Every structure is written in C-alpha cells, then in structure tokens.
Fold each of these.
Amino acid sequence: MDVFKIMNISASGMTAQRFRLDIIATNIANAETTRTETGEPYRRKIPIFSEYVKMYMGYKEPAGVKVDRVAVDRSPFRLVYDPTHPDADENGYVKMPNVNVLREMVDLINAQRAYEANVTVLNSIKSIASSALQIGAGG
C-alpha cells in the first residue's frame, strides 16, 4: 500500500477522534443545562462516523473515516427533585439533560486512545519511509 494513503487514513482517523472529543466536551459542558433554545433540556449528542472510500480504476479503495452526522440521543431526561429550581414543574421535579458524565469520561478516554493509536501509526509509517529512503540512498 502507498505510504501516503496510509498517512491520509491515519490523519482522517485523528481528525475524526478530535471531532469526537469536541462533541464529548460539549456534552460535559451542558450536563446541567436545563433550558436550551428549544425550551427543553440539552440532549446528548453522538458523532456518527462512516468509512470514506475513493474510486480507483473502478474499485472502491479505503481512504479513511469521515463524520457522517451528529445524532441526538433521544433517551429520556433525568428527573431531579428540586422545588427551588426555576425550571421545576408543579411537583418540584426538574428535567435534567440525558448526559451521564461518567459515560462521557469513558468515551473521552476511548477517543483519546484511538487518537494516540493513529499518531503511533503515523509515526511508524514515517519511520519506515525514512528507513527506506536511507536504504535507497545507499546508506
């Protein structure tokens, strides 16, 4: 496989994980947001990725990963009893975002590890290419 294709695939993986980290950060930042512009609590967002392929001489060739879309988690909101909260209903319950900070932290670690794995691939292929150039140069 072409060295530059491997680098592009790895770079697309790094870009995707960076986007995933941004979404996770947004979810954590809004874990207590009880009112958005729609009038309801913040809903957790989930990035959806898909394979990016290029056509090459009539064949599909893997070219990396791309962000397909950002989905909205439709799981129910958490109900918290706090009659003093301005968004409390008549029974004193507040609808809180469907963001579980613990789950977000696990996803954050997962995304960080995936990013690091792509960096390792990129560094390895750079080292291999450098070694090949030294061999080709006679030494």
Note: The mean pLDDT is 93.
Amino acid sequence: MKISEPNILQCVERSFEQSVLANAFSNGIYTAGVSGGCTINDATFECCIFNGIDFSDTQFDGVDLIDVVFENCDLSNKVFDNKLIKRVKFENCKLTGISFVKSSIQDVQFVNCKADYINFAEASIKFMSVISSSFEKAFFCSTKVKNINFNDVNLTGTEIFETNLSGVDFSTCQIDGIRSDFKSLHGIIIDKFQAHNLVQMLGVKLK
C-alpha cells in the first residue's frame, strides 16, 4: 500500500507565536510553541513541520491538517473532530486520547507513536498506515475504512464495532482483549497464535 507523503518541500523556519497572531500556518518549520499556551481557531495547518513541540497548553478549535509533519510532539487529548486530515505524518509523537471523530482521514501515517485511547468513531479513513505504535484501547465505531495497514501495533483492548476490516492484516499486532462485533472482524488476517484470543472473544472453549 502506497501512502502519499506530505508536500513540505517549500518550508522555512517561522515563529509559532507570530503565526498564532496572524492565524496563518503555511510553509513553516516550527520548533517552539507559545509560552503559557494559546487558542487556535478555524485555521488550516498547511505544508508545515512541527518538531519537538508540546501542545499541552494549546487549544485547537476547528483546525484542518493538510501536508503536515509532527515529529517528537505531544498532541495528547487534542480534538480534530469533523476536520480534514490529509497527507499527515505523526512520528515519535505522544497522542494519547487524540480524537478524530467524523473526520476525513487521507494518506495519514503514525510511526512509533503512543496513541492509546485514540478515537476514530464515524471517521472516513482512506490510506492510513500505523507502524510500531501503541493504539491500546483505540475506538473504531461506524468507521469507514479503505486501505489501512497495521504493522507491529499494540491494539490491546481496542473496541471495533460496525467497521468493515475485511482484508486488514493484524498478524504482527497485539490484539489481546479486543472487543468487537463479529461482522467487523470478518475476513481479517491473523496468525495461528492470535486465533486463541479471537476464540476466547467468541466465547468458545478449547479442550
């Protein structure tokens, strides 16, 4: 599966604080946030690189992400509901509790991220890759999925309902304690050692 990479070739170093004041984030490389925090309303991060920024004190209200790279950032508990997330890469990021409810997610990558409790309820996902990351207790409900890849992902305790994952390969992932309806998991790919976990979920006892 080929994921389109973010288009960030024209980025230059910019001041995060000045971009907040202008409510304009484009073609920028940002390595520091705003001391004391801030609120960003109805903005689009476009063609940007954010490196080493802790967004804990930054509030997002209506922020789209297009052609963006987050490296070594903390976006825990940030809300990107009902937004466009297109050609975005999260690498070595802390994303615990991040929310993408009802969002359109296209060509998005998660690499070596801690994204426990991530929420994709009612999202539309087209081309998403998750590699060497923790998605413990992630939530997929009424999620539309097309072309999604999991490689070495901890999905322990994840909830999956009304989401068609047929053909998705979970053979390199931890799937202990997954909760799901039967239809969502129909056609998934697992290895023989994972089969025991799914049998237990179905309430079947092995002798």
Note: The longest helix spans residues 16-22.
